[in-house]
UniProtKB/TrEMBL annotation:
It comes from the Eukaryota. InterPro entries: NAD(P)-bd_dom_sf (IPR036291), SDR_fam (IPR002347). This is Si:dkey-23o4.6. It holds the Pfam family adh_short. Belongs to the short-chain dehydrogenases/reductases (SDR) family. The lineage of its organism: Eukaryota, Metazoa, Chordata, Craniata, Vertebrata.
Length: 241
């Protein structure tokens, strides 16, 4: 899903890594609780590799959940293209280990780490303030971090963890950084979702499973659906801006 408006491009992508890049047509089997089998044709998990050679020198890219998986490989590719890469992670030790590997493999020393806990409103708010105070631009925001099918846990702010980390934290972060994205136009916001959103249903009367039995998969699915709906609505509101 991609919407283009003056200055900011909004995308919502189901994510999988192919040779260090995002493959937008991929299916995250683990997200659905399936293993590779005849139920899932190979054509749904196969895809092309981005061969674009565009450089990103002078651009600043912020990636959440950047120390492993899709986030880490995305950072590696961006760094190889010359971008300044800001890795926003909860675990700074693992983040620094990942950042150092990226610096060494790409030769780009302009890869930095910052602490961000998307389960905490305070952490997100403080991160956005510090980022705007220390950085002079933001060309791309990649909302990648997430948790999947974990036991029910309530955050310090009273939110169910999967919804808090996968959607609410990114919702707040994006809105706090919108002025900076606008001032750096043309800019881009990428929300990494999952095909699991297709089975999602958002119960606004019981968003955090306080009235009904908790479902780890159901919670994950609704958080991924929220990613997609947020992308669509943000794109609509930015039309003409």
């Amino acid at each position: 899903m991609c919407s283009n408006h003056r200055g900011i491009t909004l995308l919502s992508l189901p994510g999988k890594v192919y040779s260090g890049v995002l493959e937008r047509r991929s299916v995250g089997l683990s997200n659905l609780g399936f293993r590779r089998s005849n139920m899932v044709p190979e054509k749904w998990i196969a895809g092309g590799v981005c061969r674009c050679s565009v450089r990103l020198d002078g651009k600043t890219v912020l990636v959440t959940g950047a120390n492993t998986g899709i986030g880490k490989e995305t950072c590696r590719d961006l760094a190889a293209r010359g971008a300044r890469v800001v890795m926003a992670c909860r675990d700074l030790v693992r983040a620094e280990q990942a950042a150092e590997k990226i610096r060494r493999s790409t030769g780009n020393g302009n890869v930095v780490i910052r602490h961000l806990d998307l389960a905490s409103i305070y952490s997100v708010t403080q991160f956005a303030k510090d980022f705007q105070d220390s950085e002079d631009r933001l060309d791309v925001l990649i909302n990648n971090a997430g948790v999947m099918m974990c036991p029910r846990k309530i955050t310090e702010d009273g939110f169910e963890t999967q919804m808090a980390v996968n959607h609410l934290g990114h919702f707040l972060l994006t809105n706090l950084l919108l002025p900076m994205l606008r001032s750096s136009a043309p800019s881009r916001v990428i929300n990494v979702s999952s095909i699991a959103h297709q089975g999602g249903r958002i119960d606004f009367d019981d968003l955090f499973f306080t009235k009904r039995p908790y479902s780890a998969l159901g919670s994950y699915r609704q958080s991924k659906l929220a990613n997609v709906l947020f992308t669509r609505e943000l794109a609509r509101r930015l039309t003409g801006l």
